[in-house]
Design goal:
The complex is a heterodimer of chains A (about 210) and B (about 425).
Chain A: E1 6-13, E2 17-23, H1 24-29, E3 37-41, E4 51-63, H2 67-72, H3 80-85, E5 92-104, E6 109-110, E7 123-126, H4 129-136, H5 143-147, H6 154-171, H7 177-188, H8 195-205
Antiparallel strand pairs in A: 1-2, 1-7, 2-5, 3-4, 3-7, 4-5, 5-6
Helix pairs in contact in A: 4-6, 6-8
Chain B: H1 5-39, H2 44-57, E1 63-66, E2 74-75, H3 83-86, E3 87-97, E4 108-118, E5 124-132, H4 134-140, H5 144-163, H6 171-177, E6 185-191, H7 206-225, E7 230-238, H8 244-252, H9 260-268, H10 279-286, E8 292-293, E9 296-299, E10 312-318, E11 328-334, H11 335-338, H12 341-354, H13 365-374, H14 378-394, H15 404-412
Parallel strand pairs in B: 3-6, 6-7
Antiparallel strand pairs in B: 1-9, 2-8, 3-4, 4-5, 7-11, 9-10, 10-11
Helix pairs in contact in B: 2-9, 5-6, 5-7
Chain lengths: ~210, ~425
């Protein structure tokens, strides 16, 4: 699993989610993808800031087009250099991040929503395996934020997250993390019709897990 | 109410009622001008004499002079296959933040985007920015658009020098040009005329800028002479409004013979003959899709600045790939490009290849991309201003303040 990488900067934020601006080239060069665990760090965190890091999961990636792309798109043949050039143009990519928790000033991971959303232009990073382990080792409270996201593909997001987090824990010798996570998930969804959908998605990315 | 709508509406109605008559008049003038263009196709010597006399009489002329090619000649589109492999394209375009004497921060910025296209690889880009602090602005009072134009052209010269292995080339330019495939020709493009424009008075630094620009052109010429490959420099003027060829036809319209007095009278004639048409209107009718016109020499006030191999020339190009609406551009080139018919053909093909990538917008792709790289967006401006504010504060330099006029303008700017 790759180390933490800079992804982009916060454009807009609310208490429960925020949006980050990035570029195609950065997306291509990084391991960033749907379901990645990410964290936001302000460039210069003010003394009074209630949290030092805000954690979240990528719930949507939107590649925006412009009129140039729309003009070229219908062509049967696109010159190779023109095609690849579209991926380095300043076309913004918008990444939506669902907030899962934060790290307090005292250095504690909390699965409560941060007291304040991240500030605009704060830097977003992917989490390193170590950071993934740190964030996912305190319990399962953060899963409820994912389950609450009505307009995101919840089952796929959870499945991808479980696969990656399980790999990070396994690399550190914890083979049991995935089973514990699944038990917690079943418990959270025991009266929820989405349980089977989530388990099927988990089964697709981590066969024999669910 | 932001407009006096009733007045504007009346004026539009008046214009529209006269537009049909104007269109007929324009067509009549175009017919006559085309007739002259064809009739004088083989009389280059006589036309050159008339141009020389006109330039003697009035230094302000902006005339086309015939070259070896008949003035009514048209050249079919050369094959554009393999242009990507045959030509190394370089383009530069600039944008700027002009100083605002009413703002709290007095500064300026010139931003130049450079794009390199070689073979089928992803185009390479480089941005060169120059910040002008208040001290420089107050002491030298630079003409910022002129500095932008100069920086664009200097960027191209730097790129070509780096490509040719100039030992003094800066690392970022060497990186930009490193490992590019060897082409048959290098085409360098800027948007707009090749001639440097600016107020030619003592302030604004036009003379100094021109000197630096000529240095860059000489550097490109030196690279060309180091051939192969040929270095073909061009300025691309999309949808031009100027009329140097029409002005030439005014001189032809005097008659079979023309005395200096008749030429003077023609220059002073008001309204001038063919006042309703531009060169673009004329060549829209002459050039089929992809064709270029004859090459003309530009006789203007600046002809003494651009001499010898730098003398300014141009041709018209119908960049449209299909019949219907022609897309006329004026392509300005220095004399060194005109000397080799093969080089002109390569440039012609290269420009057509560049204009073929975006449907319904036959304009060189690389120039559009250079522009896109160069544009200073609101966010960029805000970043520069934040840095400037922070740096001044850290050094206990008091910030300026907006003028009262600016404060009031800002209050209504978003409405």
């Amino acid at each position: 699993m790759p180390q933490a990488e800079f992804v982009g900067r916060v454009l807009e934020a609310t208490a429960t989610r925020f949006w980050v601006g990035s570029r195609v080239s950065r997306l291509e060069q990084s391991a960033l993808s749907f379901g990645s665990l990410v964290r936001v760090a302000a460039e210069k965190a003010p003394q009074a800031a209630p949290s030092t890091q805000i954690y979240g999961i990528i719930s949507q990636i939107r590649l925006r087009s412009d009129q140039l792309v729309e003009s070229i798109a219908p062509l049967d043949q696109i010159e190779e250099s023109i095609y690849s050039d579209q991926h380095q143009r300043n076309l913004p990519i918008q990444i939506e991040v669902l907030v899962l928790g934060h790290k307090t000033k005292e250095g504690q991971i909390s699965y409560l929503l941060p007291p304040r959303p991240p500030l605009t232009l704060a830097r977003l990073y992917t989490c390193s395996p170590e950071e993934v382990r740190e964030f996912t080792s305190r319990g399962w409270g953060y899963l409820r934020h994912m389950l609450r996201a009505d307009d995101a593909p919840v089952a796929e997001m959870i499945a991808v997250h479980l696969k990656r987090a399980a790999a990070a824990h396994k690399a550190a010798g914890n083979e049991n993390w995935l089973n514990e996570a699944l038990h917690a998930l079943i418990n959270l969804l025991r009266d929820d019709a989405r349980l089977m959908t989530v388990l099927r998605a988990v089964n697709e990315v981590v066969p024999a897990a669910a | 109410m932001p407009l006096n709508y009733s007045k504007v509406f009346r004026e539009i109605q008046n214009f529209a009622s006269g537009a049909a008559r104007l269109k007929r008049e324009r067509e009549k003038q175009q017919e006559k001008a085309l007739e002259l263009l064809h009739g004088w196709g083989e009389k280059a010597e006589d036309l050159r004499y008339r141009v020389a006399v006109a330039a003697e009489i009035a230094s302000y002329v902006h005339l086309a002079a015939p070259t070896e090619e008949p003035i009514n000649a048209t050249f079919p589109p050369p094959p554009t296959e393999n242009c990507a492999e045959r030509v190394l394209f370089l383009a530069a375009d600039g944008s700027q933040i002009e100083p605002n004497p009413h703002g709290a921060l007095f500064y300026a910025l010139v931003n130049v985007g450079v794009v390199v296209m070689a073979g089928h690889e992803t185009p390479r880009t480089l941005i060169e920015s120059r910040f002008y602090d208040p001290e420089t602005l107050l002491e030298n009072r630079p003409d910022i658009p002129l500095q932008r134009d100069l920086a664009e052209r200097q960027a191209l010269a730097k790129a070509v020098a780096a490509w040719q292995g100039e030992p003094k080339a800066e690392q970022e330019w060497r990186d930009l040009m490193d490992g590019l495939p060897q082409p048959e020709a290098v085409v360098t493009l800027t948007d707009g005329p090749l001639e440097l424009w600016g107020a030619k008075d003592a302030t604004g630094g036009f003379a100094e800028a021109l000197k630096e620009y000529l240095k860059s052109l000489h550097s490109l010429l030196a690279a060309h002479r180091q051939a192969p490959p040929a270095v073909l420099t061009a300025g691309y003027v999309d949808k031009p409004h100027a009329d140097p060829v029409v002005q030439l036809l005014r001189l032809a319209a005097i008659g079979e013979t023309a005395t200096p007095e008749q030429i003077k009278a023609e220059l002073e004639r008001r309204p001038p003959r063919f006042a309703a048409i531009s060169d673009a209107a004329l060549f829209r009718r002459l050039l089929a899709p992809g064709e270029r016109s004859a090459i003309f020499r530009l006789v203007s006030r600046s002809r003494e600045d651009y001499t010898g191999d730098l003398a300014l020339h141009f041709f018209y190009l119908n960049a449209s790939p299909t019949t219907g609406r022609a897309a006329i551009a004026r392509v300005e080139i220095p004399a060194w490009v005109t000397k080799d018919p093969k080089a002109v053909q390569t440039l012609h093909a290269a420009l057509l290849w560049q204009t073929r990538h975006v449907p319904n917008a036959p304009y060189p792709y690389i120039l559009h991309r250079a522009h896109e790289e160069a544009v200073v967006r609101r966010g960029d401006r805000e970043t520069v201003e934040r840095w400037l504010t922070g740096a001044l504060a850290e050094n206990n330099v008091p910030l300026g303040s907006r003028s009262a006029k600016q404060i009031l303008k800002d209050l209504t700017a978003n409405h």
